Each structure stands twice: as C-alpha cells, then as structure tokens.
C-alpha cells in the first residue's frame, strides 16, 4: 500500500524558511502521474500549494509563486517543498499527496500532514 510520510514542519518567524520532505513507499511506477503539496489553514478548506507531474511539469498556487520550490529526488520517491520568505498566512497543516492515473490524474493518497506555523 502507498505510504506518505511528511517531515520538516515547525515554527518559524515571518521571513524565514523551512524545507518539507515527503517519503513515499509502495507507490507503483506504472500508474503514478504526479505528486504534490496541499495545505489546510485553520478554518479554511484544503488548497493546492504545488504539484509536479511525472513528466516534470510544475505548478504553484499564485500565493506561493516565487517563494516556494517543489522538487523530487532522482528516484522520485521523496518529494520536497522549499519554503522561503514565509508569511503568517502560510501557517497551515501541509499534506503530501500522490496521484495515480484513473483515466485522469487523481490524488488518491495522502500523508498525515505536518504543521507549519509562521509568526
């Protein structure tokens, strides 16, 4: 079964940086089509932060463009999110997600989340 384990969250002052990691296991190569980071701020719906497709196409939410960078290791089993120039509004639980092809690319697998607090 697919397991995603996030790490790297914590508390930081505004303007600081954090790097999140997500270790994926059991994620078959045959159907994977992408991985991504999502977040849920207190009292808000979960939102997309950044995604990277299996082909390397990257997307970012407008709110994090120019500040966050998504990347993967060469084996594509570890996903990273480098977060710079953090703002208080970036405070949220950040989730790693993995997508498989089911006729379209669907995020079916989720980590438990890691808390990021910016003060």
Low-confidence stretches: none
Distance between the termini: 37 Å
SSE run: EEEEEEEEEEE
Main β-sheet: number of strands, strand sense, barrel status? 7 strands, mixed
- Categorize the overall geometry: globular
Which structural class best describes the helix and strand composition?
mainly beta
Q: Percent range for helical residues?
A: under 10%
Instruction: Round the mean pLDDT to the nearest integer and report it.
Output: 94
Q: Roughly how many Å is the radius of gyration?
A: 14 Å
Query: Counting H and I runs of at least 4 residues, what is the number of helices?
Result: 0
Structure description:
There is one protein chain. The protein is an all-beta fold and about 120 residues long. About 0% of the residues lie in helices and about 55% in strands. It contains no helices and 11 strands. The chain has strands at about 5, 10, 20-25, 30-40, 45-55, 60, 70, 80-85, 90-100, 105-110, 115-119. Strands 2, 4, 5, 6, 9, 10 and 11 form a 7-stranded mixed β-sheet that branches. A 4-stranded antiparallel β-sheet has the order 1-3-8-7, with no helix packed on it. A hairpin with a 5-residue loop joins β4 (about 30-40) and β5.
Topology summary:
Blueprint: E1 3-7, E2 10-12, E3 18-25, E4 32-40, E5 46-53, E6 58-60, E7 68-72, E8 78-83, E9 92-101, E10 105-110, E11 114-118
Parallel strand pairs: 2-11
Antiparallel strand pairs: 1-3, 3-8, 4-5, 4-9, 5-6, 7-8, 9-10, 9-11
